[in-house]
Amino acid sequence: MFRLKARWLLPSFLFCLVLSRDLPAQKLPEASSGPSVSWQYLAASPPGDYTGPERCRSCHKPEFAEFNKTVHARLAAPGKDYITGCEVCHGPGKAHSGAVEAARGDDQKIAAALKQFPIFAFRANPQENAARCLTCHITSNQQDSFAHSEHAAHGLSCNQCHATHLVDEIKDQSKGGLTYPQAYFFQVPKLADEVRWLHNSLLKRSEPEACYTCHRTIEAQFALPVHHRVPEGLMKCPDCHSPHSSLNRASLNKPYWETCVKCHVE
């Protein structure tokens, strides 16, 4: 009797196996293309206030080296009247660099020069910091609407997630307490994260750690027995959510269930 049942079980199992091959099932998310990267070129106005990136390198060697590895450094301006390099983000630096050089290493004079001739160092409020990036990034599919995003509404700016040059501050304890001018110049590249940074939208941290910095409650939910495989690296937050702008609930890339059925096709 048992042998007779076994003879029928095997064909039934094979039939179900063949049938299940053609049925829809859950799948991994498709690779997200991310926002389109496009920009506009800025004209130097007035031209005499700009000094060029080579002069910045004399003091900011690590930043200059890291910046030159990014796509920002490879932008070819359409003409000589357009800004390239550091001053695209930090503003005109001729007066700034001239005053620092005139200080000849004197900490007090350097501090006075930095105060009198500051450059934009992304230490302003989030709206002003983001506006500096959006001066160029205004023609992409998502970045042009960042000002209306949930992140912007909660006081986040581009430089809190992204870094145009990934460096760490070095405190030279041999000179005692680090003064502000020293802190301004003593920097080194974060070489351990450099490759990831260059190939992951210049994010300061890897995903999802960059998101966990603020979304602590979401991080805790991923510790539940049933969760999307984000901690395991099979998914990323941008697979479902748009960090730059979205009119959908919870900043979803697509409205409602359309986001879910990209994977949950069953």
Give the tally of structural domains.
2
Structural class by sheet pairing and helices: mainly alpha
N-to-C series of helices and strands = HHHHHHHHEHEHHHH
Describe the global form: elongated
Neighbour order of strands in the largest sheet: 1-2
Helix percentage:
25-40%
Query: Largest sheet, described in full?
Result: 2 strands, antiparallel
C-alpha end-to-end distance? 38 Å
Mean pLDDT: 78
Number of strands: 2
Approximate strand percentage: under 5%
> How many helix segments?
13
Write the layout of secondary structure elements.
Blueprint: H1 2-21, H2 53-57, H3 61-67, H4 87-90, H5 94-103, H6 107-116, H7 126-134, H8 150-153, E1 167-169, H9 180-185, E2 187-189, H10 194-198, H11 209-212, H12 216-221, H13 257-260
Helix pairs in contact: 5-6
Walk me through the structure.
It is a single chain. 35% of the residues lie in helices and 2% in strands. It is mainly α. The protein has two domains: 47-205, no CATH class; 207-266, no CATH class. It has a two-stranded antiparallel ribbon with strand order 1-2. α5 (94-103) runs antiparallel to α6 (107-116).
In short:
By secondary structure, the chain is mainly α. Helix content is 35%, strand content 2%. A two-stranded antiparallel ribbon has the order 1-2.
List keywords for this structure.
266 residues, mainly alpha, two-stranded antiparallel ribbon, 13 helices
